[in-house]
């Protein structure tokens, strides 16, 4: 039986007269993957902002493993195991790939406590093993400024895993990638899900990526969930086709 690891119930968020979220409800099972698709302005990023504590909902709740996360401060949500990757890579140009991994591992091991972090001796072996598993072993000594775009994106996803995050929120993780880089990212997401059991929620516009990832979809329109289902079910829905997908995805 699938356990509702993430449960979103009637989330609403208004900015004056603008209703960005209008009663969004869905669940994500333990170790599950779902993609959220929808046009710009449909509420996808607002939803992620609510789930990470950047915004407080106007109404409704979001719970993680039975514990409420909606309305909590961002740092508290992060400590509960919710990690977000933004569309634009947030890596530091003057640090190496290995240094990025060691920082992420230190955050997990010390809980972000300053004195514990200063005393932490590091775990280079674990960082090397994670980079090797993700196909990034050859980049360990490279500065982030030297990395191709696709490698930066994969590194940032891997850092969420190194931090021990239980729910990964990935915002357009393949934006600006080549077809080869996109496939490598799909492979990484699948591997992370299978080996760590992390639940993953992805915002994506690239329907080729969505089809290849082969996970359930959530279609959002005007701050609401319009449809849930498989890629084929969503593609065949006349309301979705008219509102978002269009004839090119027939």
From TrEMBL:
One of its GO terms (molecular function) is ATP binding. SMART domains: AAA (SM00382). GO terms for cellular component: plasma membrane. Keywords: ATP-binding, Nucleotide-binding, Transport. Pfam families: ABC_tran, BCA_ABC_TP_C. Residues 6-247 form the ABC transporter domain. This is ABC transporter ATP-binding protein. It comes from Kaistia nematophila.
């Amino acid at each position: 039986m699938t356990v509702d690891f993430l449960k979103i119930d009637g989330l609403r968020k208004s900015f004056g007269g603008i209703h960005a979220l209008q009663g969004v409800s869905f669940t994500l099972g333990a170790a599950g993957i779902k993609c959220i698709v929808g046009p710009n302005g449909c509420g996808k990023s607002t939803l992620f902002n609510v789930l990470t504590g950047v915004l407080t909902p106007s109404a409704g709740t979001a719970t993680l493993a039975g514990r409420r996360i909606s309305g909590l401060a961002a740092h508290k949500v992060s400590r509960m195991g919710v990690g977000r990757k933004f569309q634009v890579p947030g890596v530091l140009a003057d640090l190496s790939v290995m240094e990025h991994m060691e920082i992420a591992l230190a955050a997990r091991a010390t809980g972000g406590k300053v004195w514990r972090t200063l005393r932490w001796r590091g775990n280079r072996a674990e960082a090397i093993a994670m980079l090797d598993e993700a196909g990034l072993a050859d980049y360990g000594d490279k500065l982030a400024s030297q990395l191709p775009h696709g490698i930066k994106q994969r590194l940032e996803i891997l850092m969420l895993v190194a931090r021990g995050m239980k729910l990964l929120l990935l915002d357009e993780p393949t934006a600006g990638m080549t077809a080869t880089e996109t496939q490598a990212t799909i492979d990484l997401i699948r591997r992370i899900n299978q080996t760590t059991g992390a639940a993953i929620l992805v915002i994506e516009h690239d329907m080729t990526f969505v089809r290849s990832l082969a996970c359930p979809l959530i279609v959002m329109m005007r701050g609401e969930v319009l449809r849930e289902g498989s890629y084929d079910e969503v593609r065949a829905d006349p309301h979705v086709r008219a509102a978002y997908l269009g004839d090119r995805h027939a």
